[in-house]
Write a structure and sequence with these properties.
The complex is a heterotrimer of chains A (369), B (279) and C (368).
Chain A (H helix, E strand, L loop, with lengths): L3 E9 L3 E10 L4 E5 L6 H9 L6 E6 L2 E2 L10 E4 L11 H11 L4 H14 L15 H15 L3 E5 L7 H13 L7 E6 L2 H7 L2 E6 L2 E6 L1 H6 L4 H6 L6 E10 L2 E6 L5 E3 L2 H9 L4 E6 L4 E3 L10 E13 L4 E7 L2 E7 L10 E7 L4 E4 L9
Helix pairs in contact in A: 2-3, 2-4, 3-4
Chain B lengths: L2 H33 L3 H4 L14 H7 L2 H34 L1 H4 L1 H10 L9 H12 L5 H26 L2 H10 L3 H30 L2 H6 L7 H7 L8 H32 L5
Helix pairs in contact in B: 1-13, 3-13, 4-8, 4-10, 6-8, 8-10, 9-10, 10-13, 12-13
Chain C lengths: L3 E10 L6 E11 L4 E5 L6 H9 L6 E6 L2 E2 L5 H4 L1 E4 L11 H11 L4 H15 L14 H13 L5 E5 L7 H18 L2 E6 L2 H7 L2 E6 L2 E6 L1 H6 L4 H6 L6 E10 L2 E6 L5 E3 L2 H10 L4 E5 L14 E11 L3 E8 L2 E8 L9 E5 L6 E4 L8
Parallel strand pairs in C: 3-8, 3-9, 6-7, 7-8
Antiparallel strand pairs in C: 1-2, 1-4, 4-5, 9-10, 11-12, 11-14, 12-13, 14-19, 15-16, 15-18, 16-17
Helix pairs in contact in C: 3-4, 3-5, 4-5
The chains are: A alpha+beta (369), B mainly alpha (279), C alpha+beta (368).
């Protein structure tokens, strides 16, 4: 049973990077930690690996407390962001390294290394040095080195961040399909939220001090517990407006404090909000839930239509970003790249009010969950 | 690049380098031909730039004398033993300073070690003489020089190895730990291979220093043990000034460092620039 | 501002181990004030091309002209180009104000004029409040802006940006892109951007030059590259997720010419012009390209579709990416994030025949 349990983990230098973290990653689970650069994701992995000592707390793997064990005694394998391949050894020897450490018989080492190399499609490169292979191949060598070790937990530190888009795609598919990874617990770190959403069985969004929210991909994206989580996931970032809740014509509205923009609150949210004490909220609406309404188009219920002026139109290939000035506020929406909008053009935007989030203006917590 | 300028600059460089080459190599040329001249030709007022006759027999004259051969061999022994010790100890110290600075004493300790290289060697001459005399009974043995040269070579080796170890990425050792290697095994498997070029250049520097050292060798040894540097003046101290034999002997004495350097040249360049440029 | 033309430019690097023909017969016209990108995978020759334009590399053959004037022999300083580098290269001991003013100081501009220019640029780049600080105190994004400012302040004829966004994280990259557009719009300079990230290239440029292996494949607007990619490489390189490709043969049945994948798993209907073009061309195999964005699970009036088995449903937040198999072929399609279709289920993918791109199987060029 290779379950990973972290209890009350604390680690900090001048300030706490990880503050009393509790986490359980089940055997076979792919747990992805996502968060901004420098927040402590790598520190978390290093603590699990034993390359750093925690100030407090325990790490338990498969029922055994490994907190006091040095890294070379822990059944843990890790891929480093910089790959950390041994430059003076061949690809074969790099992959064989964990097996040589255990002093296994030569024949067995050869067999296992070749099997893994074939699985990762680098069996033709075994005699080369790391300096002679491409970035994607280096990454696969590093991955091979961890696979061959057959540890009880895999730690993957931004394994595909520095690769070309095309190779990243291929390798992402590989992470989905590699059976070997599914036999034990996996902790995967990335700053790319799309990668996280795609790969994770569960996703932990990391903020200052630890994991701010843990949940499935749908949960963390569609039900963010805090403003931080909502802001960190999504490209382009969610629109956030500092609003006041006021009643107008008997209907609850969110009025932007810095402009004239006022949006009605959807029925489903009204009850939850009235229950609370918030007059002032951070109103969040994702660009994907704001669309351009064409003239004459039939508007469905729940869509609040408002006049707007285009400030910037950015076709990005698959979709286009529309930055607008709406009643004095800057609103970002998504649109199709096929239709060109020009700067200064007047358009109408439809805001899907049911998809709005309301966060406490002070502590950022989601008020409607 | 403008062709005109380029050609002019190239010509000037050529001329300059040509002159420089001649000036630098002339002494060696002269040394070489002097080595094979006869004694009377060497002592003439006007020097000749080509021997009247190539006296290969000079070789026999110099090396049939056992003391000369012994001097070269002794120097070889002393330089090699000292270098091995200096590099070995220096590497251990350098590794400690690079990887565990806090426990090893940090920048202060590193600087103090290096500062040992900064005072004039003459300052410790007499105390060392006294110390060896008391402890070893006499100074006229291999051990005294082997140990003494450590005073100069070990700080250099420590400092340079510290820099090289610092440049060896820590992550490689960490990857080795995670592969299951204990720190000691990881050191040999991963760290040491990284610094081998640096080590080669450090070893070469130490060796050359020991090979060329004169002051202390002159003071401490002489009868039981001789080194090439003190053997050389011997040729011109007697009634006859045997410049030709002195030249031949010194020519032979110059060969080992030159050969070593040429063999290890690759490492020299790599090693010396390892600590300089941050990748 | 300058119009930059490259005429059959070649660059061959000569070395003991053999020659490398890094740039092959490159011809390009960049109009005055245009913002263009050189896009391609690592090693495609874009950096070499760039360096020849700047003057850091000699031209093996061919001509480079700025506003009609031949610049092959001119030193970089004489060409009036400015370059912003990937690694900001700021002077760590000088304040931001001094860093920005340096290019002008070197040219002997008076202190008063310098101060004005520095403030103008700083305002444009929104770094006025950090003028008194040293680079070490600034964030990566701010440092990047200072680096840009230092290059811009010289008011060069051509402004070159070499992979300036590769070290920025997603949020910062996005902001930087918007800023670069803004700067371009207000300064109206000829700007040349080099990158391997197609999203950056498409977002920023008026036109994009797609390169690989030293060759220019296509130089066109986003629409050109999307709807009429010159060949399989361009179609496959531009677009995220990448274009789906199938090898197929023409099949005439019921009076209609369709393309049938070689294993018979899927049949693609074509627009009338493409069908007649294929009839005229007469080969027995073609490469089909169709973008994942153009395959939908919602019919929305479309009648043409193929059936495929779901392999993966990757949720991405704003949408989901489906990986499916049809016969021996694998393809991807984009669907709504609320789509809960699972592995091994069957999906109907609708497409518009106009979006089916057809390429010659040997030359890999688009059939027009």
């Amino acid at each position: 049973m290779a379950r990973l349990e972290i209890e009350g983990l604390c680690k900090g230098w001048d300030f706490p990077v990880i503050d009393r973290m509790d986490l359980t990653v089940e055997e076979g689970e792919f747990f992805v930690v996502v968060g901004p650069s420098g927040i402590g994701k790598t520190t978390l992995l290093r603590l699990i690996a034993g390359l750093e000592s925690p100030n407090e707390g325990r790490i338990i793997l498969g029922g055994n407390d490994i907190s006091r064990l040095p890294p070379y005694k822990r059944p843990v394998a890790m891929t480093f962001e910089s790959y950390a391949l041994y430059p003076h050894l061949s690809v074969f020897e790099n992959i064989a390294s964990p097996l040589r450490a255990r002093r296994l018989p030569k024949a067995e080492i050869e067999q296992r290394v070749k099997d893994v190399a074939r699985l990762l499609k680098i069996d033709q490169l075994l005699t080369r040095r790391p300096a002679e292979v491409s970035g994607g191949q280096k990454q696969r060598t590093a991955l091979g080195r961890t696979l061959v070790a057959e540890p009880e937990v895999f730690l993957l530190d931004e394994p595909i961040s520095h690769l070309d888009a095309k190779i990243r795609h291929e390798l992402r598919a590989q992470f989905h399909t590699l059976e070997a990874l599914r036999r034990v617990a996996n902790v995967y770190v990335t700053h790319d939220y799309a990668e996280a959403l795609s790969l994770g069985d569960r996703i932990g969004v990391m903020g200052r001090g630890g994991l701010v929210q843990i949940g499935s991909a749908h949960e963390v994206f569609e039900k963010p517990q805090t403003l931080f989580v909502a802001e960190h996931l999504g490209q382009p970032s969610i629109n956030v407006l500092d609003c006041e809740l006021t009643a107008r014509d008997g209907v609850l509205h969110a009025r932007h404090r810095e402009s004239l923009l006022t949006v009605p609150v959807a029925q489903a949210h009204v009850q939850r909000l009235n229950g609370g004490n918030a007059d002032r909220v951070s109103y969040g609406i994702r660009p994907q839930h704001i669309a351009v309404v064409a003239d004459g188009e039939v508007v469905r219920d729940g869509l609040h239509v408002i006049d707007s002026t285009v400030t910037l139109f950015e076709p990005l290939g698959t979709y286009a970003i529309l930055i607008t000035e709406t009643a004095g506020a800057t609103i970002t929406a998504l649109s199709s790249p096929e239709h060109r909008y020009t700067q200064g053009e007047s358009i109408r935007l439809g805001i899907d009010t049911a998809e709005a989030f309301f966060f406490d203006a002070v502590n950022g917590k989601n008020l409607v969950l | 690049m403008r062709d005109r300028h380029y050609k002019l600059v190239a010509t000037l460089m050529f001329v300059f380098l040509g002159l420089w080459t001649i000036i630098s190599l002339f002494p060696y040329y002269f040394q070489f031909i002097t080595s094979f001249k006869g004694i009377e030709e060497v002592n003439r007022i006007t020097p000749t730039f080509w021997p009247d006759e190539f006296l290969w027999s000079n070789l026999d004259l110099v090396f049939s004398d056992e003391t000369n051969v012994a001097a070269l061999l002794d120097t070889l022994l002393i330089a090699s033993a000292n270098t091995a010790l200096a590099v070995f100890l220096g590497s251990l110290a350098g590794y400690a300073l690079a990887r565990f600075p806090r426990q090893a004493g940090g920048e202060n300790m590193a600087f103090w070690i290096l500062s040992n290289r900064m005072f004039p060697p003459v300052a410790i001459l007499l105390p060392m003489f006294r110390a060896f005399d008391t402890v070893l009974g006499s100074t006229d043995n291999h051990l005294s020089l082997i140990i003494l040269y450590l005073v100069f070579n070990m700080p250099l080796a420590t400092w340079l190895m510290m820099v090289f170890f610092r440049d060896a990425p820590r992550e490689l050792e960490e990857a080795a730990y995670l592969d299951g290697y204990s720190p000691l095994r990881a050191f040999f498997k991963v760290t040491l291979p990284q610094v081998v070029p640096g080590m080669m250049s450090v070893a070469l520097l130490c060796w050359i220093f020991a090979w060329n050292e004169y002051l202390f060798a002159n003071m401490l040894v002489g009868s039981n043990v001789a080194v090439n540097t003190i053997q050389m003046p011997g040729f011109v101290q007697g009634a006859q000034k045997l410049w030709n034999l002195a030249a031949l002997f010194s020519l032979v004495a110059v060969l080992p460092p030159v050969v070593l350097f040429m063999v290890l040249r690759r490492y020299m360049v790599r090693g010396l620039s390892l600590g300089v440029v941050k990748g | 501002m300058a119009r930059v033309t490259l005429d059959n430019v070649n660059k061959i690097y000569v070395s003991r181990r053999g020659n490398v023909h890094a740039v092959q017969d490159m011809s390009l016209v960049i109009e005055d004030g245009e913002f263009i990108s050189l896009l391609g995978p690592s090693g495609c020759g874009k950096s070499s091309t760039l360096r020849m334009i700047v003057g850091l590399e000699s031209v093996t053959s061919g001509e480079i002209r700025f506003d009609g004037e031949l610049v092959n022999e001119l030193e970089p300083q004489e060409r009036n180009v400015a370059m912003a580098f990937e690694t900001y290269a700021l002077y760590p001991n000088f304040t931001i104000e001094e860093n920005l003013g340096f290019p002008l100081e070197v040219r002997g501009i008076s202190k008063q004029d310098r101060k004005e220019e520095v403030h103008r640029i700083a305002e444009l780049l929104q770094i006025e409040d950090v003028l008194g600080q040293k680079p070490g105190a600034l964030s990566g994004g701010q440092q990047q802006r200072v680096s840009l400012g230092r290059a811009l302040i010289r008011a060069p004829a051509v402004f070159i940006l070499d992979e300036v966004m590769s070290h920025l994280d997603a949020h910062l990259k996005f902001q930087m892109m918007i800023e670069l557009r803004r700067i371009h719009q207000s300064l109206e300079r000829t700007m040349l951007f080099v990158t391997h990230d197609q999203m950056e290239a498409l977002a920023l440029s008026d036109r994009v030059a797609v390169m690989s292996d030293g060759r220019l494949h296509q130089f066109g607007t986003r629409d050109d590259l999307y709807h009429a990619p010159a060949n399989v490489f361009v179609a496959g390189f531009i677009g995220e997720p990448p274009t789906n490709f199938f090898t197929a043969r023409p099949d005439e049945s019921n009076g209609e010419l369709t393309l049938l994948t070689l294993d018979g798993g899927a049949r693609f209907h074509l627009s009338a012009e493409r069908a007649s073009r294929i009839r005229a061309h007469g080969a027995n195999q073609y490469v089909i390209g169709i973008r994942p964005q153009n395959m939908s699970r919602i019919a929305n009036g479309l009648k043409t579709s193929i059936t495929a088995q779901v392999l993966l449903n990757e949720y991405s937040g704003e949408h989901s990416i489906l990986t499916l198999t049809v016969g021996e072929n694998r393809l991807q399609a984009i669907t709504a994030s609320s789509d809960g279709i699972k592995r091994d289920e069957s999906a109907e993918l609708y497409y518009h025949p106009d979006n089916v791109l057809v390429f010659d199987v040997e030359t890999e060029n688009l059939l027009t």
